[in-house]
Design a protein that fits this description.
Shape: elongated
Number of strands: 6
CATH architecture of one domain: 2-Layer Sandwich
Distance between the termini: 74 Å
Helix content: 10-25%
Strand content: 25-35%
Low-confidence stretches: none
CATH topology of one domain: Alpha-Beta Plaits
CATH superfamily of one domain: RRM (RNA recognition motif) domain
Number of helices: 2
Length: about 120
């Protein structure tokens, strides 16, 4: 039976290939995924590594928890099951600030629309 590990406190420069190479020292890695930001593509600083056997996963925890990689001490432990989340609701009218009727000038920016004194 396979076992999935959570790897935290990773350097933002660490990629899946480096992590796979490191964790393969202990046993056969089924999958290795560094989690990245959807927009920038940059690492979020954590990953998941899955081993084919529980024994190898337990050995990896002992060997690599607080192991330094890229100048940071990794946190390695058993991954918790993913929690179900309610779907997000978005307001179709758009978002953002908007105009506040109680403020004539649109905030504390000053400017030419009745804000504070310029000089």
């Amino acid at each position: 039976m396979s076992k999935r590990l959570f790897i935290g406190n990773l350097s933002f420069d660490t990629d899946s290939a480096q992590l796979n190479e490191l964790f393969s020292q202990v046993g056969t890695v089924s999958s290795c995924d560094v989690i990245t930001d959807r927009f920038s593509g940059r690492s979020k600083g954590f990953a998941f590594v899955e081993y084919e056997s529980e024994k190898e996963a337990d050995e990896a925890i002992k060997k690599f928890n607080e192991h330094e990689l890229g100048g940071r001490k990794m946190i390695v432990n058993v991954a918790r099951p993913r929690e179900e989340r309610a779907p997000r609701e978005f307001d179709r009218r758009g978002g953002g600030g908007g105009f506040d009727r109680n403020r004539r000038s649109g905030g504390d920016r000053g400017g030419s629309r009745g804000g504070g004194r310029r000089y």
